[in-house]
Amino acid sequence: MRIFVAGAADIVCHREKASSDFVPQCSESSACCTISASLVACSARAGNHVGAGKQNNKWVNSMAAARQDSESKPISPGYEASGVSSGQAEAGLGRLVEHIKSTWSLSDAPVKLDLGYFANVIDVAGLGIAICTDGIGSKALVAQMLGKYDSVGIDCVAMNVNDLVCVGATPLTMVDYVAVESAEPAMLEAIGAGLAEGARQSNISISGGEIAQLKDIIKGHQSGLGFDLAGTAIGRVDLDKINLGETVRAGDVIIGIASNGIHSNGLSLARRALFEIAGHDADSHVEELGRGVGEELLRPTYIYVAEALDVLDRLDGVGALVHITGDGFLNLTRVKADVGFVIDALPPAPPLFALIQRITGADAMEMYHVFNMGIGFCLVVRPEVEAEALAIVSGHGKACQRIGYVSEGPVGSVRIEPAGIEMTR
Fold first, then answer.
1. Domain 12-16+26-424 falls in which CATH fold?
2. Phi and psi at residue 208, in whole multiples of 5°?
3. Which of 117, 137, 149, 260 would give a disulfide with 190, using CB separation of 3.0 to 4.6 Å?
4. pLDDT tens-digit series, residues 281-302
């Protein structure tokens, strides 16, 4: 469940070894067509959302903390320098959450989950309806810089449907909200085309939406072309099949599925690095990337619905599904289980991340907090179904590999051995 509040553009606030076995990624030409519980943490997304979870798995106060060289520390000031402030958002969301939960007794459709999971579920006469909301954050600014709007709709759909499947739901439909500085027809048409493509990839409908002309509020990179894009999606899940990761246990395997670059998280830091510090333009070609900067940042978020649902349908022993968004691998700790996680075999990260790190001087801790580092979605499965799960995912055209395992603890920790860091809630 995500609740939008006014704030910095790339912030999500939650409340309450390189391997030779990495499956080759799908072709570049197919990329577009296959192509963050309690109080509180802040990371990289435009929509602030409220979350909670099991008491021993709650997010620590002030900011998602991490441990490096046996010392906990928050995300470095580099991200705050990009306009992302956690403290103010935390204070505001602290006041918001009690009002939100006070509404739960008003409806005849009971809310089934606490806050903090990737989506919530309501009980509609015995039918589980999952719901979530999200947006594209400051990726909208990159689209304006490049004058290219036909892929951000895919991102909007992806950020929602990828969250829905994490609770075991089949996405059904979505509504969009486009706030614009001016209702420029060609821009709106291109955004619509991306939404439709994302819907096709997810097998959902776009059943409605809203265009709000807010020229006194919405400002962008180019005069008249400012916009924000968000959506709300619903799905269906049997009430006895809601997946919260309760069955995850030590010894389970973590399968990582490749991302398509930066996705829709960490754009504030990426834009500061590439445009403000390095001085690139959106159309600057960077040899290290093999393409223009804007083109790289606009690569659409992968949609993982088909492979996730296929794994759920065909395999027993699926403990959890985890969308790797803001806070990176710390999203693993949102499962409702008293466990820790060890990442011991990552594929090479896309070159964009090394470029950002070199420009900003960010340490590994910050990079792994802010970005997905090449893994966009994880499956936590029993060891005996690992091979089958890998085969199913790769059959859907996504690169995947075993990247780690579940440990007995420390509870709420993620140790990333290739980077030599340990992050904790």
1. Phosphoribosyl-aminoimidazole Synthetase; Chain A, domain 2 (3.90.650)
2. 165, -175
3. 149
4. 999 999 999 999 999 999 999 9
